[in-house]
Amino acid sequence: MKFAGIVLRNVHSPISSVEYGKPFDALLSGGVVLEEILMLSYDAPSAISAACARLNTEYEGVFLICDKVLSQTAKKIVSALTGRRFSDEYHLEGEGCFFAVLPDGETGADIVRRQTIALVDGRRKNSYSRVVIGAVSPPSAKLNAALKRAFAAAGGKLDLNISEKYGCARIEIVYDASTPKMVADEVVRILATELEGYLYTLEDVSLARRLCEALKLHRLRISTAESFTGGGIGRAIVRVPGASEVFFEGINAYDNRSKQERLGVSELTIMQKGAVSDETAYEMAAGLISGGNCDVAIATTGIAGPKADGTDKPVGLCYIAVGTKERVRVFRFRLSGDRETITETAVNLALFHALQEIK
């Protein structure tokens, strides 16, 4: 079956104002590959109607993504074209073509996962399975070599969808019921073996969730002391349901006085080594552990940019400390990109190294 998508947007707003990526990614995860995607203005109904009419004859499924307030308009256009009513709030089963009018963002993605894929599978008389592999900052050469071997082993019998953001590589293996399971298992084995040391999950879960699961399993509590990541690590953790069982506190020690007064960082350390240093990160994490209220500590200090801190240290330099009652380890990184990319990548690196410390 062939599928297409339409994004309805306000031409006076940024393209990013319509979060179409998440529902389209959810379709891809269910084996629905969109061969054509159109971006149309919501205030041009004749153009939308003409596009739907053409796609209705060329494809077996069409998915419209729009802001919720525009859904009724979109549904009226589709109903008028097909002469049919929507069978539920989002889907219309046409004679030849299947239509779905979906909200954007995570809401639309959730509908796709819970309802749309099952309806599509019923029409194409097939079902799809998937395995998600997550890795943090694998070297490009290693990742490319792993993917090359995996594609060779797949032999065209399954799809590998790869995305990478803020240091996290996500590899989605999608295959239908006709694919021998041994082929999928071999692809997973290759990727897990090649990316050993960078892997954090073989499930579709976030890095923060995996950390929270590990903390719960070992009955540990975690605290964070963040300088340049500004609370991003703590925010990622508390987004996980049940995080209150494992998260004790988060301190945003941005100012040097805060590092000294709240975490016990030595004034001499900051004077001699600087706020962005191995020693300062170490003492920040050690200060949390010495408080006696947590079993695991994460501390970050660095230069996110766009300007340096007045020293000879470059933008992107950061130190991430992960401590337990037995030891504190400090990791040095030189990250690249804009301010957001640097800080968000550091957040993922911190979560990953904390997970590695307690696995």
Descriptors for this entry?
alpha/beta; 5-stranded mixed β-sheet; 12 helices; 359 residues; single chain; 42% helix; elongated
Topology (SSEs and partners):
Elements: E1 3-9, H1 21-29, E2 34-41, H2 45-58, E3 61-66, H3 71-82, E4 91-93, E5 98-103, H4 105-124, E6 128-136, H5 140-154, E7 159-165, E8 168-176, H6 181-194, E9 199-201, H7 207-217, E10 222-226, H8 232-238, E11 247-252, H9 256-263, H10 267-273, H11 278-290, E12 296-302, E13 317-324, E14 328-334, H12 339-358
Parallel strand pairs: 1-2, 1-3, 3-5, 10-11, 10-12
Antiparallel strand pairs: 4-5, 6-8, 6-9, 7-8, 12-13, 13-14
Helix pairs in contact: 1-4, 2-3, 5-6, 7-12
The shape is: elongated
Any idea what the radius of gyration is?
A: 24 Å
Alpha carbon gap, first and last residue:
43 Å
H-E string: EHEHEHEEHEHEEHEHEHEHHHEEEH
Are there runs of 5+ residues with pLDDT below 50, and where? none
The assigned structural class equals: alpha/beta
Strand content: 25-35%
* Total beta strands: 14
Q: Quick one: biggest sheet?
A: 5 strands, mixed
Q: Report the average pLDDT across residues.
A: 94
The total of helices stands at 12
Taking strands numbered 1, 2, ... along the chain, how are they ordered across the largest sheet?
2-1-3-5-4
Explain what this protein looks like in three dimensions.
The longest helix has 20 residues, at 105-124. The protein starts with a strand and ends with a helix. The radius of gyration is 24 Å and the shape is elongated. It has helices at 21-29, 45-58, 71-82, 105-124, 140-154, 181-194, 207-217, 232-238, 256-263, 267-273, 278-290, 339-358, and strands at residues 3-9, 34-41, 61-66, 91-93, 98-103, 128-136, 159-165, 168-176, 199-201, 222-226, 247-252, 296-302, 317-324, 328-334. The strands form 3 sheets. Strands 2-1-3-5-4 form a 5-stranded mixed sheet, with helices on both faces. A 5-stranded mixed sheet has the order 11-10-12-13-14, with helices on both faces. It has a 4-stranded antiparallel sheet with strand order 7-8-6-9. The chain is built from 12 helices and 14 strands. Helix 1 (21-29) runs parallel beside helix 4 and helix 7 runs parallel beside helix 12 (339-358). The mean pLDDT is 94. The protein has 359 residues and is α/β, with parallel strands linked by helices.
